[in-house]
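Run log // design_07
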């Protein structure tokens, strides 16, 4: 299923254009007039949805900021 975001429990009422549960997340852009500009689903729930879709999401359901933080933490742990 390419529309992984449809599995989100907030899908029906959500208006976030840059959805971390979209396979096109890195290509999507938010807009200043969007009613919601940030995903309000908890990280744990996004990871649960992503986990049922084996590696189809580049960031695994994380936002770009969350993914970068994870990468940095993994790098720091590997270097130490």
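design_07 sequence
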């Amino acid at each position: 299923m390419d529309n992984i975001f449809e599995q989100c429990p907030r899908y029906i009422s959500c208006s976030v254009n840059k959805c971390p549960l979209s396979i096109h997340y890195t290509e999507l852009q938010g807009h200043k007039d969007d009613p919601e500009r940030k995903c309000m689903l908890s990280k744990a729930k996004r990871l649960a949805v992503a986990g049922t879709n084996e590696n189809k999401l580049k960031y695994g359901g994380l936002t770009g900021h969350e993914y970068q933080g994870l990468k940095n933490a993994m790098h720091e742990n590997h270097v130490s």
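The helical segments are 43-51, 64-79.
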